[in-house]
Write a structure and sequence with these properties.
It is a single chain. With about 525 residues, this protein is an alpha+beta fold. Helix content is about 50%, strand content about 10%. The chain contains 21 helices and nine strands. The protein has helices at about 1-20, 25-30, 45, 50-60, 85-95, 110-115, 120-130, 140-160, 170-185, 200-210, 215-225, 230-235, 240-260, 270-275, 300-305, 310-340, 345-360, 370, 375-385, 425-430, 470-490, and strands spanning about 70-75, 75-80, 165-170, 395, 400-405, 410-415, 420-425, 490, 515-520. The protein has a four-stranded mixed sheet. Strands 3-9-8 form a three-stranded antiparallel sheet. A hairpin with a 5-residue loop joins strand 5 and strand 6 (about 410-415). Helix 13 crosses helix 16 (about 310-340), helix 16 crosses helix 19 (about 375-385) and helix 16 (about 310-340) crosses helix 21 (about 470-490). It is globular, with a radius of gyration of 24 Å.
Amino acid sequence: MIGLFCVGAIFLLLYYILFLNHNYFVKRGVPHHKAVPILGNAAPYVLQKRHISEVLQELCDAFPKHGFFGYFDFWCPVYMVKDVELVKKICIKDFNHFVNHRTQFSAEHDPLFANSLFSMNDSRWRNMRSVLSPAFTGSKMRSMLELMINYCEQGVESIARMVHENAMDLEMKDLFTKFSNDIIASCAFGIEVNSLEDQENQFYTNACALTRMNGIQGLKFLGYISIPKAMKFLKIAIINTKMTNFYRDLIKRVMKLRETSKIIRPDMINLLMEAKNHKIVATDDSEVNDFSGITNGDSPKNISKMIAWNDDDLAAQCTVFLFAGFETVATLTSFMAHELAINSTVQAKLRAEVDATGAKLNGRRPTYEIIQEMTYLDMVVTETLRKWPPVPFLDRRCTKPYLLEDLDGSSVQLQPGDSIWIPTTAIMRNPKYFPQPEKFDPERFSVENRGTIDPNAFISFGVGPRNCIGSRFALMETKTTFFYLLSRFTIESGPKTQHPLEIKTSSITMQAKNGFWVRFRKRS
């Protein structure tokens, strides 16, 4: 009898899991695709048959007359919002209904991710955003540029030594992860490493392990994206204890050294130390308050006093800044190098701008303003982000009841806890917003043409108050890197260059299946 009861209980549990929510969208009258048990609509990329961005784009294309549709991320229902006007309403106009991300981390088992700006919710997020915003204004970028230039000058010399003859084939993701690692090590953690010369340094090996988007680490990221409550319940951590202690101890050592030696350096560590000691003040940069959430006359100084800083808070901001910047910038620069290698006309025009800027500098280092004035460089970077966005989708979690209206006049009532995804690749490759989306065309972002583009359709760094706080840093790093690279080298297709690129299906982010191989040739 007990055996039959156990078998029946197991059968009911399996039935519940297999068909949980299977009629969720039917009840709500929301168009959707039929899902397979357990994996839902995620089956093609979970089974590594296709990349997630390709799967989402195909699903979006199937509903041309709708602004959103139903999607099953495993057994969890998600509203996939693909119309730009709806995206603008959700992320900007009605932001107070969608303040938080869906992802949830355990402060006990994953303290660095749980205490980071990305993971914080509601007022805690607003307060921390206000405190950290001054680190990413134009004035701070001007200060950090010197640190970036130090590394770029060192980096191109290392590459020049690697290119023994006139030309050499190099894999861009490997090259740019080292560039990105060393720049973030300097600007966020206040330490100097040279990963091109010393590939086994502890900071670089830990950063690679932290940001790996395949294997066991990739599965953990997928779990926190798709089934965050289950991952939190199972106490599975993104950052293991050894790595957590490494970053926590590193930040403590650097801060202690600076306090005892009275060292002041223009980097993120310095800002965190000021915030911890309640010395942070508002600057006159207009960007500080754009998305700060400051209300009732609170200044960043007052808000910093509301935060009881501990070692995990301090280490978390730097560690997640590394996590976000290491992979995304390395991927952006890798795709940009590939596009320049196969689009020789674009590269020639960009190289001419680099040479003209170099001639104007006459041996001096570029300033923040000089880099900002390089309009064609900005066009090339922007088009790379448009065609190859760093993440396949954005996510938001409903925090207040909200009526989501479709293009055909129908609507659905969202409740707190409901999830929304915004497919970045599908939107930025939609010919409705970007004609000939598969073509790499920097001219679409020229001064003359920008007016024809809906700015809310460009969502590579997110949209609205919860956009990427480090986007300005990432753009400056990318532009500075290519200013120095193209001053010394041309980038060409080589025998290992794959075109068109085949995207690796085992990675959450976009990665070339066979690597980003191009040929570097020294300029005379």
